[in-house]
Design goal:
single chain, Rossmann fold, disordered N terminus, Bact_Solute-Bind_Prot2, Peripla_BP_I, L-arabinose transport system substrate-binding protein
């Protein structure tokens, strides 16, 4: 890997965020998995990182964080596998890494419904597994050790910020629409969007709430753009728009569709979730409907997943039931100081 200034920044951000993750671990919970006595491993370790939508910037950053933490720990190899959005591929790739006898597995499932199959397969092979980003459970309902973010809490931060900007703009519910985009069969996404709606309602107080247009997407920017374009055509009389979603792809796709439809950036309040795409307009100094975003650090999740797995394997530390990262709202003025690397 070529050593660049950007690479150093990502490494430092991941290392710092890892400390936050460690501090954010659930307290008082019982370990969800404990290694057998005498099971500590020595020598080189191989950790498989299986990710849905591995080409999205967040997951690219997550893989970078995992690899950098592996270098820091020493003698650890991270095998990254892109699952796309294919649940069947997730199962076949899981079988492949189990057959390869990897030492540990971190997985972001494309569909939480396959959780029992994933968790039980790893358990049968006696390979420790953590779920990253999206929580999953075993066939008997026991949650897998989780590394990631509080989905509903993230959504609430988005909704709170959107309400703040809406009130400051002085818009009315009658001439405003909320557009929310998410993969509607993914509980993690539903938690985020529901959290945003709850916090927005609380944030505006007794005021009337604008109507919401719910877009079912595949969580890609392209699909959100297409679906939002159709929604705009059906609501040509609307003056003002608020956009949020499960991730930055949904929010920026919606904002792009609105701007392509000749809605002025001043008439759009877009609050992203991730900040890795919303930051691009800020970085370019462009006028944009992307007004703010919740910054979530992919490197922190990847590095934490590797850290807890290696600690379990080498030092017999129990896998924490839940490792939760902190987040922060950023905008065009504050994103650089947050440590966000916009590529």
């Amino acid at each position: 890997m070529k050593r660049t200034r950007r690479g150093v920044v990502v490494l430092l951000a991941a290392a710092g965020a890892l400390a936050v993750l460690a501090a954010g671990c659930s307290s008082g919970a019982q370990p969800s998995d404990a290694p057998a006595a005498g099971a500590a491993k020595t020598g080189k370790l191989t950790i498989a990182l299986l990710q849905k939508q591995g080409d999205q910037q967040y997951f690219v950053d997550e893989a970078t964080g995992a690899k950098e933490q592996a270098k820091k720990l020493g003698d650890v190899d991270v095998k990254v596998v892109d699952l796309g959005t294919d649940a069947n591929k997730a199962i076949s790739e899981l079988d492949n890494v189990i057959a390869q006898k990897v030492d540990g597995i971190a997985i972001v499932v494309p569909d939480q419904k396959i959780g029992p199959q994933v968790v039980d397969a790893a358990k049968a092979a006696n390979i420790p597994l953590v779920a990253a980003d999206d929580a999953i459970s075993s066939g008997d309902g026991k949650p897998a050790p989780f590394v990631g973010f509080d989905g509903r809490g993230m959504g609430q931060e988005v909704g709170k910020k959107a309400a703040e900007l809406y009130k400051a703009a002085g818009w009315t519910a009658a001439d405003t629409r909320i557009v929310a985009g998410w993969k509607q069969d993914l509980k993690t996404c539903s938690d985020r969007v529901e959290g945003a709606a709850e916090a927005f309602k609380t944030g505006i107080g007794a005021g009337e709430i604008p109507k919401t247009i719910a877009l079912g997407t595949d969580n890609s920017a392209a699909d959100a753009l297409n679906k939002a374009g159709a929604a705009l055509t059906d609501n040509l009389g609307v003056k003002h728009w608020i956009a949020w979603g499960c991730n930055d792809e949904n929010e920026t796709g919606i904002v792009t569709a609105l701007q392509n439809g000749k809605v002025a950036p001043a008439d759009i309040i877009g609050v992203g979730l991730g900040a890795y795409l919303t930051c691009k307009d800020w970085n370019a100094g462009q006028s944009t409907g992307n007004k703010a975003a919740l910054y979530i650090g992919g490197p922190a999740v990847g590095s934490a997943a590797v850290d807890v797995l290696v600690g379990h394997l080498r030092d017999q530390k129990p896998l924490p039931p839940s490792t939760i990262a902190k987040t922060e709202i950023v905008d065009a003025k504050t994103w650089k100081s947050s440590g966000l690397v916009c590529t």
